[in-house]
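User: Design a sequence. Structure:
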């Protein structure tokens, strides 16, 4: 039987960003299904709910007045206006998860990622998802069939600006094959979880191991 760990880990903020249609939401959904220590940060938004979306599951849908009240009270960890709608992250659930060693996934744009980086730089891991081509990005938005033609054109126009922000992220992946992209995100998460600076009590743990080796405790335990 292995000895219990004598150190703990603070949770991570894992940010996935991309232009609309590049696949970050699909990657997020699959990652959440396979990783039980990861939970989705549910944003508040003033955007109208799409037919496939469920309130309090995909987003907390609020009025502009409610959103402004949360923002002004300091209840949002970050917020941004995207495509004419406001989005934000409630502060309290995120801070509680981190203190309990649980990881939180964010499906947000570069503006929100920038604010999180400024607010909690030691906790953040940022990943930018690129589409394999402009033509494929357009095709994915059309296949999604959840936006009208004017909205699709606006998203494609905005994508040109959004793409320039990839240089602000820790990691960049190209989503040309979903399972490969998913595996890359999973590998990043696994590595970041064992980064030395995230482990609390590690010095004491290593000291205890060293002491056991010096006084023969380890040898006695083996016998």
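Assistant: Done.
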């Amino acid at each position: 039987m292995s000895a219990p760990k004598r150190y703990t880990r603070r949770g991570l903020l894992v940010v996935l960003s991309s232009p609309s249609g590049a696949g970050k939401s699909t990657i997020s959904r699959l990652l959440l299904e396979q990783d039980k220590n990861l939970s989705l940060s549910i944003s508040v938004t003033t955007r109208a709910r799409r037919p496939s979306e469920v309130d309090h599951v995909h987003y907390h849908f609020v009025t502009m007045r409610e959103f402004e009240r949360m923002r002004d009270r300091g209840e949002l960890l970050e917020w941004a206006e995207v495509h004419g709608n406001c989005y934000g992250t409630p502060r309290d659930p995120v801070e509680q998860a981190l203190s309990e060693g649980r990881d939180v996934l964010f499906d947000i744009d570069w503006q929100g990622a920038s604010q999180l980086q400024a607010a909690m730089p030691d906790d953040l891991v940022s990943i930018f998802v690129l589409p394999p081509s402009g033509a494929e990005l357009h095709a994915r938005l059309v296949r999604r069939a959840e936006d009208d033609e004017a909205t699709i054109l606006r998203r494609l126009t905005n994508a040109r600006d959004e793409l320039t922000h990839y240089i602000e992220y820790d990691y960049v992946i190209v989503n040309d094959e979903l399972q490969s992209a998913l595996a890359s995100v999973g590998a990043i998460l696994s590595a970041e979880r064992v980064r030395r600076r995230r482990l609390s009590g590690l010095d004491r743990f290593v000291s205890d191991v060293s002491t056991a080796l010096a006084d023969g405790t380890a040898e006695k335990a083996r016998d």
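The mean pLDDT is 88. The CA atoms of residues 42 and 58 lie 6 Å apart.
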